[in-house]
Design brief:
Layout (H helix, E strand, L loop, with lengths): L7 E5 L7 H13 L2 E4 L18 H12 L2 E7 L7 H8 L9 H5 L5 E9 L9 H10 L2 E10 L6 H14 L1
Parallel strand pairs: 1-2, 1-3, 3-4, 4-5
Helix pairs in contact: 1-6
């Protein structure tokens, strides 16, 4: 699965694969050389206590991350003050790593996790990233922080591009 020279996997969770969040994901991937995954292109079902969904794409994606990458960067638009449903679903599935795939879950320890959020206009609450920070802490991952990027007129401004570069420099 690894195609770039980077140790970063970027996971984009958005309701649209070709919207503003894609602009941000593409720009970050270009800056960082990261491998990008669009959750809309994966079959990942909701968390299921009976684990009837264990053959969807979630565990394969995590296995690929653990084998080939050191850092996971999550990218999401902000919808109604929170992350996208696609990213929330992805995070909910980490419960599989605490139950049926504990050995795989333990391999996340020492890996790193970061967050990029996106909106039109620079509107976000400072607490937005707390679920991601706390998830990283719970899983034993290093939390590298959160950068918010606002899009104006379907473009990333030099100031916003600087934020993406700052996050990458935190990772490297």
């Amino acid at each position: 699965m690894k195609q770039q020279n980077s140790s970063i996997m970027t996971v984009m969770g958005s309701a649209r694969s070709d919207g503003n969040t894609r602009l941000v994901a593409n720009r970050f991937s270009k800056i960082s050389g990261s491998f990008m995954v669009d959750l809309n292109q994966k079959e990942i079902s909701y968390y299921d206590y009976e684990h009837l969904n264990k053959d969807d794409d979630f565990l394969t994606l995590i296995r690929n991350f653990v084998a080939d990458y050191d850092t996971l960067v999550l990218i999401t638009p902000i919808y109604w003050y929170t992350m996208s449903a696609q990213l929330k679903n992805f995070l909910d599935r980490t419960s599989d790593l605490l139950t049926i795939e504990k050995d795989l879950g333990r391999q996340l320890r020492g890996k790193s996790l970061a967050l990029i959020s996106q909106t039109e206009g620079d509107h976000f609450e400072p607490w937005f990233a707390e679920p991601i920070r706390m998830t990283a802490e719970y899983l034993g991952m290093n939390y590298l922080g959160h950068k918010h990027v606002s899009i104006e007129n379907n473009k990333i401004s030099p100031e916003m591009e600087k934020r993406l570069a700052e996050l990458f420099h935190t990772i490297e």
